[in-house]
Specification:
Distance between the termini: 15 Å
Order of helices and strands: EHHEEEEEEH
Number of strands: 7
Low-confidence stretches: 30-37
Largest sheet: 5 strands, mixed
């Protein structure tokens, strides 16, 4: 099963009945669209496919400002979230907090989420906003290639 799961989410496949007479199922792809509701405010997010199609895919700050009207970029390149002070934000890249995304190429991002207010406590040391990025792994690329071979 190939399923898109949000960075902070999980996926419940429901009941799966296994039949011992079936040894393999070649060429089966299940596409499921779902919306997780867990009591949190909606969070803007981009998938790797959306990033690949974006005109700002080579500019992380451009991607961030395209995700929400609550974020703007100043003349010196700093991001401002919902009226917070300039630079009062953090990037979380594969779980590592940093104040600058540096030169992360857009083609390496698997998922990206943007918190512009009401930050969860786990991000703690900022009041402005958080950009959460998950990089693509070898297995993401391999699964995508494997799925393309089934067509």
């Amino acid at each position: 099963i190939l399923v898109e799961v949000p960075i902070d989410g999980f996926f419940n496949t429901g009941e799966i009945e296994f039949n011992s007479s079936i040894l393999s199922m070649d060429g089966v792809i299940v596409k499921v669209k779902m919306r997780l509701i867990d009591g949190n405010l909606p969070v803007a997010g981009l998938t790797a496919d959306q990033i690949d199609k974006s005109p700002a895919k080579f500019d992380i700050k451009g991607l961030v400002t395209s995700m929400s009207s609550e974020v703007r970029q100043t003349e010196d390149g700093s991001l401002v979230f919902r009226g917070a002070r300039k630079g009062d934000m953090i990037y979380l890249i594969d779980g590592v907090k940093t104040r600058d995304a540096g030169s992360v190429p857009g083609c390496s991002i698997g998922k990206m989420m943007l918190y512009t207010g009401g930050l969860p406590a786990k991000y703690g040391d900022t009041l402005g906003g958080v950009v959460v990025m998950e990089s693509k792994s070898y297995f993401d690329l391999y699964r995508r290639w494997e799925a393309s071979q089934l067509h």
